[in-house]
Amino acid sequence: MTVKTITMPQLGESVTEGTISQWLVQVGDVIEKYQPLVEVMTDKVNAEVPASFSGKITKLLVEEETTIDVGTPLCEIEVESMESTGSNHPEMEHNHEEISSTKEINTMKNRYSPAVLKLASEHQIDLDSVQGTGMGGRITRKDINNRINQTKQEQKPVTETPSSNTLTIERSTSILADKEIPVTGMRKAIATNMVKATSEIPHAWMMIEVDVTNLVRYRNEEKDQFKQSEGYNLSYFAFFLNAVAKALKKFPELNSSWANDKIIQHKDINLSIAVGNETELFVPVIRNVDEKSIKGIAKEIHVLAQKAKSGTLTHQDMAGGTFTVNNTGTFGSVQSMGVINYPQAAILQVESIVKRPVIIDDMFAARDMVNLCLSLDHRILDGVICGQFMSHVKAILENISGNTTPIY
Amino acid sequence: MPVVSYIEAIKTAMEEEMERDERVFILGEDVGKRGGVFRATEGLYERFGAKRVIDTPLAESAIAGVGIGAAMYGMIPIAEMQFADFILPAVNQIISEAAKIRYRSNNDWTCPITIRAPYGGGVHGALYHSQSIEAIFANQPGLKIVMPSSPRDAKGLLKAAIRDPDPVLYFEHKKAYRLLKEEIDNNEEVIEIGKANLLQEGADITVITYGLCVHYAKEAAKELAAEQGIEVNLLDLRTIYPLDQEAIINAVNKTGKVLLITEDNKEGSIISEVSAIIGEHCLFELDAPIKRLAGPNVPAMPYAPTLEKAFMVNQDQIKQAMLDLALF
Questions:
Q1: Beta-bridge partners for A359
Q2: What does the pLDDT look like over A28-40, one tens digit per residue?
Q3: pTM for this entry
């Protein structure tokens, strides 16, 4: 019988700490290898930490809601098999020693060799986020190469959440009765991203009004049947995403991102959609929307919304977005100015559909109207191209019918 | 395949070349009847006769000078210096005549001489029988210097040296003579002069060396791989002048960490030049300072065994230097 320790793993590059949101096991539980032990929330994702070996939980070392560094021991497990301990134990101990010794004397942590600097700048790696394995915590060329390979394996997300500790928050003095909410995890990431987006991107705005009477009629005809056969709602949002994807195909300039010395125009149309719960905002991604039917899009919206509610969105779910569509209309909003999801080129806000009197052929008519609000990065885009894009979205939406936009 | 020692490989190379080409002959002190003080020419006098295996007076300048003259007249001499330490009286002949004759005569004359000399310490030879003198000749365009690290290389490089149309200095480590043995094909392998040899590939550190140090480095790398999992990229220079820049640059770029080893005194040694090449070409690939492991800047190899041991670069030192660099 040997007691082994499970430590907080590195959950994605640039992640240095995480908050224990919930323990999934208790002391005394007998667990299998790979069984989820604990839910951890980082500034990027919520993840489950699996057991590295089978055994019996003897001690939980961290309480829920505590934020801990990567490498901190999480729990202790009593392992039964002697063979596996024999082979694993020295290795584990060895790792521990390495970690603690590098922490004690990180004298070389900020001494970078020419090779490291070159690789880091070529691959845009934040050196603060790399754990050095060299002498005195020095980051070696091998460490950087490992990071690059690791990033490649993760299929290189287009949107990289900037490291959360770049922002220093000045604490204001508060009266005793006030409630202080620590800014951690997702909140911290949102804050950092918003500061970066609004301070760096020169935003410009545009709004158009779209007559979606046809869409409303079409969707109302189909929605009950759809719900019955598919089990989830046929949302308006699916149609909007479909229209945006078609328009992006025609105007790829908007499906791009800013990379300092160049603009990267993306081939895939991966739409980030904003979904939230009471406290948090997530931006999961629906991939290759232009290749999907209305049903396919509706299904993905449903799945991602469920995941967001239960807090089970993974890093993979949120990586690779090329353009964001935000369903602000849910709250009854009719106009808003969205903040661009850095480093994308633009964000489109779909406002709520309202019945309004509209003049058609000199006669008043009651029509279903919706406002679409576009925020654009003026470094990448100009008014003309965005105007054309918006007109195209409008044209698609106004001509929606069973013929132009089949659900299946 | 027969197992051949370093010195047998040298003898076989000369024997095969003398058989192949009648113009090839040997001259040097005690190379004839005695068969050489190290027995490098054993049996050749009996086989090829006194006209092709010539005993000379104790006058290195004459050995070199006679050889150079014969070479210019169309012969292919192999001149032996009994010890590399004794080559110094012949330096004027080698540098002023052999190295420059092609250039000076605008290609009319050539000097296809090979000068063999045993170098290196660790054999209780003290001052006059232990020196590494390659650096003296390593900035003389017109000369080529090869220093084999194994029996196979000893044979292939000596054949290449004999066939080369220009003067080649061939330095053989006397400690390697009977220390290094390996199986060699009976085929006529000729190893190209001017090309380094990547002995093993590894991702952690690059070691560049030549001569007997290659053997120590190989053994140290084997131990480190087994004990620590450290993979060494090991480059044997083979030809130390002119250097194979491309191979050096490639080997360094592979890992960014480089250890250079020579048995010679550190300052102004061959590895100093290697280090300069790396500095010129590899700055942005370097992940650690260039590390040199060499003999101390002391005038000569001491005779006292303890001091000789302290002077000589050995396998343990190499292993430690490799480990330090890998951990850097």
A1: A364
A2: 888 888 888 998 8
A3: 0.55
